[in-house]
Amino acid sequence: MRELPAGHDAVMLDFSGDPAPADAVARATVALRAAQQAGTLHIADVVPSAHTVLVQADRGAGIDTLGVHRALRLDPTDAAAHGSASSQLEVPVVYDGPDLADVARVLGLGTERVVQLHTGILWRVQFMGFAPGFGYLVPDGDEEHPLRDVGRRPESRTRVPRGAVAVAAGYSAVYPRVSPGGWHLLGRTSMTMWDESAVPPARLAPGTLVRFVAQ
């Protein structure tokens, strides 16, 4: 892990050199949020991304780097005991996407096997981005999962429908609203991912565990 300065009130933890950066980011996020909830680390926010975690203190408070390092040494079991255990969500999916056959060809598999691969594991929201409610999901604890080998489409679509369930570049996602997109569309869900009238408006959050269920 590299520690990068991010101003007086924040520090960036870079796990890009770790053998499994996604898992390292997940562990760090759980540990830091557990310490925050337990009151042993006074911070305002923890913001994970693909290979980094931004730890943000209250404005003007300064970042407690020693406290950050103590939190990172927290055992994952202890972190769960402090209330940081991830929530789990089941997402119903109709697997009739226009790119399902293409993904099967890329992997040298049948379409039914692709569906089994997508539904047979838990996915973890590593970070949020691109659009409100859009979560980047990675296979939970499986760095060698076959769907990680699926890249982006050669050409992006100008319009991807809301609820489209997709994979690309090692991630899976559900499009929360109509938008352009270059991911492979496997299917669709009727579940709403972003609702401005709800609290919170996003159904997903970093750390949420997701299981896709074929309908």
From TrEMBL:
<protein>
    <submittedName>
        <fullName>Carboxyltransferase domain-containing protein</fullName>
    </submittedName>
</protein>
<dbReference type="GO" id="GO:0016787">
    <property type="term" value="F:hydrolase activity"/>
</dbReference>
<keyword id="KW-0808">Transferase</keyword>
<dbReference type="Pfam" id="PF02682">
    <property type="entry name" value="CT_C_D"/>
</dbReference>
<dbReference type="InterPro" id="IPR029000">
    <property type="entry name" value="Cyclophilin-like_dom_sf"/>
</dbReference>
<dbReference type="GO" id="GO:0016740">
    <property type="term" value="F:transferase activity"/>
</dbReference>
<keyword id="KW-0067">ATP-binding</keyword>
<dbReference type="GO" id="GO:0005524">
    <property type="term" value="F:ATP binding"/>
</dbReference>
<dbReference type="InterPro" id="IPR003833">
    <property type="entry name" value="CT_C_D"/>
</dbReference>
<keyword id="KW-0378">Hydrolase</keyword>
<feature type="domain" description="Carboxyltransferase">
    <location>
        <begin position="1"/>
        <end position="204"/>
    </location>
</feature>
<dbReference type="InterPro" id="IPR010016">
    <property type="entry name" value="PxpB"/>
</dbReference>
<keyword id="KW-0547">Nucleotide-binding</keyword>
